[in-house]
Amino acid sequence: MLLLHDQRPNYVTILSVIRAVGALNREEMTGVVHAFAFKLGVGSEVSIVTALLGLYSLHNDMIMVWQSFYGAEVKDLVLWSALVNACMKNGKFADALNVFRDMQVSGFEPNYVSILSILPACADLGVLPLGKQIHGFCIVRGLYTVTNIQNSLMDMYAKCGVFECSIKFFDRLRNMDLISWNTMICGSMENGYPKEALSFFHKMLKSGFQPDKTTIRSAITACSQAEEVKFGYGLHCYSIKSRLEGSVSVGTALCKMYADFGDIVSSRIVFDCLPRKDMIAWSAMISVYAQTGHSFLAFELFSQMQSANEEPNEVTLVSLLQACSSMKSQEFGKVIHGNVTRNGYSSNVFITSALIDLYCKFGQLAQGEVLFNSLPYKDIISWSSMINGYGINGFGDKALETFSKMLDTGLKPNGVVFTSVLSACSHCGLEDEGWKWFNHMKEHFGIIPALSHYSCMVDLLSRAGKIEEAFRFINEMPLQPDATIWGALLAGCKTVKGYVGIAEFAAERLLTLDPDNTSYYVILSNIYADHIAGLSLEMNKEGILEILLVSAQDIRNPNFIGKPCYYVIAHCGKQEVRSKTVSGEHKKAVWNEKLVLRFPFSDLENMAHLKLRIMDTSTFSKDGNFIGETRIHLGGVITEGTDKGFIELKPARYKVVLEDDRYKGEIKIGLKFKKLGDVQPTMRECVNLVHEKKSLRSMVKTIASLWLCQRWKFFFLRKKPNPVDVKKQS
What we know:
Layout: H1 11-24, H2 30-39, H3 46-58, H4 62-70, H5 77-89, H6 93-105, H7 112-125, H8 128-141, H9 147-159, H10 163-172, H11 178-190, H12 194-206, H13 213-226, H14 229-241, H15 248-260, H16 264-272, H17 279-291, H18 295-307, H19 314-327, H20 330-342, H21 349-361, H22 365-374, H23 380-392, H24 396-408, H25 415-428, H26 431-445, H27 451-463, H28 467-475, H29 483-495, H30 500-513, H31 519-539, E1 541-553, E2 565-572, E3 575-578, E4 582-583, E5 588-600, E6 609-616, E7 626-633, H32 635-644, E8 646-648, E9 652-657, E10 664-678, H33 683-708, H34 710-717, H35 723-729
Helix pairs in contact: 1-3, 3-4, 3-5, 4-5, 5-6, 5-7, 6-7, 7-8, 7-9, 8-9, 9-10, 9-11, 10-11, 11-12, 11-13, 12-13, 13-14, 13-15, 15-16, 15-17, 16-17, 17-18, 17-19, 18-19, 19-20, 19-21, 20-21, 21-22, 21-23, 22-23, 23-24, 23-25, 24-25, 25-26, 25-27, 26-27, 27-28, 27-29, 28-29, 29-30, ...
């Protein structure tokens, strides 16, 4: 109307128009107003530039923000503060700090607005020294008593990890407001103190403050972290009473809380009751389904979201990729990949890392490498995804090589990266490398091993067949083992035979931690069945005992007539074998002959001794043809031979003892124990063995099923009444 009446607007009118465009969020009008301001000759006025700078920052156009700033003829404190604020709104925290320093170099002293703008940058970047300098500046300039600045200082100290300073600030506050309480509740959760956050919430209610949506949402999140179920139910009731349950932020927090408590149905009910659902609410519910294994429900909800004309964000797409991985659907994964490309997220590091992980789990390592190499910037998550991808596909050397390249870039690995490295070593059997990096975590990088790292090491030792070493490793852990660690040990006992006792102990711990998981019973029953079936097969093996006869000395019987002819009879269990007859003098008889005894393993208990008896057939003696015998203990020989497959002893001298103990002599022999292969059973024996194994498995599984029945468990585990207590009651 003003232009239609040929009236020339001044810079005040242009300022009003700029504010109106910002209030209406008319992004397409921003450039028009800017051009019109230049046409009128007021485009370089500091007030106009300040307003345009705020308008461009509202639309996330930082290029025009910088152009507007440098196009100003005069730069005052308000313009500098507006630029700091624009950088903060667009997440350019480092740029905000640089602008704040340049402002002081240019001779402008920070004011109330610029300090409130820069303190969040110190908090998000963790620049504690600069935050302390600003704190000191506020004390010197008398701004320390302003409540908003005090709240920002408390938030800065909490986000920098110095929560004790935040508590000191809070205790000294004279004029605390609702933002002060919200700052302490959020700071408690960020520093890992969810119960303290709930305590602050309780104190806030006692102080007479009415919580807002931010307070309720933070308290609900604290209930999830502290696992305070009843407190969470109370907050839900309070939100309904306060008419805040329709808030998207509160409803989303309630959905996540019920999901953390394992109540997916209630989580969906809260979601459906939301009068208005934004992208955050849709993404939160899809994430709940994906993380709890309900992949089909996640895709069904995604379809409903598209019907509601909501475009997915990066959180939604990552959750859907996680659902594809859980349901092992490569087709759905390719569909989501196409959606990522259409929505312009191809260069997003977060989503690309999820795609790398997905393709590697599907065995398409080449596609994962293409995506990894296409990233213009690789963060910790992308490196970790690629390392883990090499590991699960059996390329342990490439995983370690990729880890070395990451270290060369200057990135400092975190606990997640070390989990991927140790997992790769476990999958590929790289025991030495696994121990190396497990020890380097704390020594060189200052990372204290978590349960995930201990779980990888237990899995590494179990896969290597070192069950006893893995069991000792668990017992020496400084942390309490969880179900993942005991599960890795139990899986190792199933793969490596002969550790039934350790398997029973691991299963007992697993059932204590997760009593409703029936898979542990099945694994343990299979271990029992395999162990007994292995014993049955072991009984069908056979071995041989080889006796090398060398010579005998001083075995002459004084009561003989003629030239002696010696031979040896070897007795072992039920087996007996005779050597060839050898003629010799009474001083020495030489055989150099090998005697062989065959026997099944089932006769091991009858093979405690080997008895060698020297006989003489050609001489006449008052003792008949018996000259002497010796006994050799075979316990150690057979036991060691069973473990190693065979054992061979060099010829050794054994004393010959006659029955009447009158004649002494020595015999020199050598022993060799060999473990042969399986005895080929008959067809009937094979059928019987298969039936016995099947019946054994079914019997053990039946017992496990009965144990799972609550009535049977109650019957066996109920406490028997004490006779003394019965008498007292009577």
